[in-house]
C-alpha cells in the first residue's frame, strides 16, 4: 500500500529480481553461434595442413623460387606487397607455425625497413583476428563462470595490460598464438592489445627481417638461417632490457600503492 506514490513505513519496495537474474544468465550463456568465428579459423587450419601449406612455406621452396619471387616484386611491387601482407595475415590468423619464415622472407623480398613495416602491420592484423574470435566465443562465458581468483587475475592483468603485453611480445618465451588468446580471455581492451602487439613485436621482427635481408648470401653458401639467433646474448640482452623498461610503470604503480597503504611512523 502507498500514500502519494510512496511506500508506507515498514513496507519495503519489491524488486524485480528476475530481470537481473535473466540478464546475468544470458550474459554468461554459451551458444554455438559464438563459436562460428573460431570454427572458421580451425577449419582453415585443418585445410592448411591437409593441403601441405606448412611444407610449402619453407626455405627450400624459397630457395627454388627466389628468382621468380624477386622478379615478381620488381615487376608488380604494389601487388607483391599486398599479396605478402595477405598471406602473412592468414598465417597468423590460422596460427600456422610459419610466421618466423615469412618474417625472414619479408626481409629478403622488401629489405629491412619496408619488410619490418609490412610484417608488423600484417602480424598485428592477424593477431587481432584471433583475439576478436576468441573474445567473442569465450570471454562472456568464462567471465560469468570465473571464481574470485580468476577475476582478481583478470583485474590485475587488465589494470596494466599494455605493459604486460609488451613484455610478452618482446620476450620470445611464449608462442605468438598463445599471446593472442590469453588477453582475449582475460578481457584486455582492444586498444591495449593493439598497441602492445604493434610495439612489442618490432624488435624481434627487426632481427628476423635483417636476417632475411642477407638470405641470398646464405643460399649461395648452401646455408639456411638459424632461428635461434634471437636467443644469442648480444640480441636477447637488449630485448630483455626493453622488457624490463616496460615493467617499470607497473613496479612504480605498485610501489606507490604500497607506500600509500603503509601507515606513517
Strand content: under 5%
Q: What pattern of helices and strands is seen along the backbone?
A: EEHHHHHHHHHHHHHH
**What is the topology, as strand order, of the major beta sheet?**
1-2
SS field, number of helical segments: 14
| Main β sheet profile | 2 strands, antiparallel
Overall number of structural domains = 1
Protein name: TVP38/TMEM64 family membrane protein
Membrane topology: Multi-pass membrane protein
Subcellular location: Cell membrane
Pfam families: VTT_dom (PF09335)
Give the secondary structure arrangement, pairings included.
Layout: E1 2-3, E2 6-7, H1 17-27, H2 36-50, H3 53-56, H4 59-75, H5 77-93, H6 99-110, H7 112-145, H8 148-159, H9 161-170, H10 176-185, H11 190-200, H12 202-213, H13 215-220, H14 233-261
Antiparallel strand pairs: 1-2
Helix pairs in contact: 2-7, 4-5, 4-6, 5-6, 5-7, 6-7, 6-12, 7-10, 7-11, 7-12, 9-11, 9-14
Summary, kept brief:
It contains 14 helices and two strands; from the N terminus they run E-E-H-H-H-H-H-H-H-H-H-H-H-H-H-H. It is mainly alpha-helical and 265 residues long.
Structural overview:
With 265 residues, this protein is an all-alpha fold. The protein has one domain. 75% of the residues lie in helices and 2% in strands. Strand 1 (2-3) and strand 2 (6-7) form a beta hairpin. Helix 7 packs parallel to helix 10, helix 7 (112-145) runs antiparallel to helix 11 and helix 9 runs antiparallel to helix 14. The longest helix has 34 residues, at 112-145. It is globular and about 65 Å long. The termini are far apart. 26% of the residues are buried. The model is unreliable at 5-26 (pLDDT under 50).
Amino acid at each position: 500500500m502507498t500514500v502519494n506514490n510512496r511506500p508506507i513505513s515498514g513496507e519495503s519496495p519489491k524488486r524485480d529480481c528476475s530481470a537481473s537474474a535473466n540478464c546475468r544468465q544470458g550474459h554468461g550463456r554459451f551458444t554455438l553461434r559464438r563459436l562460428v568465428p573460431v570454427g572458421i579459423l580451425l577449419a582453415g587450419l585443418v585445410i592448411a595442413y591437409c593441403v601441405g601449406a606448412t611444407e610449402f612455406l619453407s626455405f627450400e621452396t624459397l630457395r627454388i623460387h627466389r628468382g621468380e619471387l624477386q622478379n615478381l616484386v620488381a615487376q608488380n611491387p604494389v601487388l607483391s606487397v599486398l599479396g605478402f601482407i595477405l598471406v602473412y595475415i592468414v598465417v597468423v590468423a590460422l596460427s600456422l607455425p610459419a610466421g618466423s619464415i615469412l618474417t625472414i622472407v619479408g626481409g629478403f623480398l622488401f629489405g629491412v625497413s619496408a619488410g619490418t613495416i609490412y610484417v608488423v602491420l600484417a602480424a598485428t592484423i592477424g593477431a587481432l583476428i584471433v583475439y576478436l574470435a576468441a573474445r567473442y566465443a569465450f570471454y562472456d562465458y568464462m567471465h560469468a563462470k570465473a571464481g574470485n581468483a580468476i577475476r582478481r587475475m583478470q583485474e590485475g592483468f587488465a589494470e596494466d595490460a599494455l605493459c604486460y603485453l609488451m613484455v610478452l611480445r618482446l620476450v620470445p618465451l611464449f608462442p605468438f598464438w598463445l599471446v593472442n588468446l590469453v588477453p582475449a580471455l582475460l578481457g584486455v581492451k582492444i586498444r591495449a592489445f593493439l598497441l602492445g602487439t604493434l610495439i612489442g613485436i618490432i624488435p624481434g621482427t627487426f632481427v628476423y627481417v635483417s636476417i632475411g635481408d642477407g638470405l641470398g648470401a646464405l643460399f649461395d653458401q648452401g646455408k639456411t638461417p638459424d632461428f635461434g639467433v634471437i636467443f644469442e646474448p648480444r640480441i636477447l640482452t637488449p630485448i630483455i632490457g626493453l622488457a624490463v623498461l616496460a615493467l617499470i610503470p607497473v613496479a612504480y604503480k605498485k610501489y606507490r600503492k604500497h607506500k600509500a597503504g603503509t601507515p606513517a611512523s
